[in-house]
Specification:
10 strands; three-stranded antiparallel beta sheet; 2 helices; five-stranded antiparallel beta sheet; 141 residues; alpha+beta
Length: 141
Amino acid sequence: MNARQRRQDRRRAEGVHQDAYPAKCPITGRPYFMTLDHPELGMVPTYGGPYDSYTIPHAEGEASQPWHERELVQHRYDHDAGGWLLDVVETVPLRIIHDDVRDRLEDAEDTLKALGYVYQGHHWKPAPKDGVRVEGGSDGR
């Protein structure tokens, strides 16, 4: 048996026993911890651990809502208490945004810049007059 055949045999063997879930949560990057039985969702992979582990976040809300208006939520298993925190659904501070929405936001940003506005402290403000310094602004001074 040559090296290539051994590699193929090893891959086949690993595939039979390998867990079906990603090694890391695709949203949070937490490492895979274990599969648990959730009372509403059934068997789910959890990520994190060893004290708390979480399901893969999913978009809450109605399918008819735009993605950027829907919160990402995850369920938490408390390993110290030995159970799911069923009355708590934790949000993830991320949003999924469609390219068309992002393009419109970037176009609006270009328009505001062309009108002389600067982004400062999470708000757009009129650009300062010459000789007036803005602390912490994005005007490059």
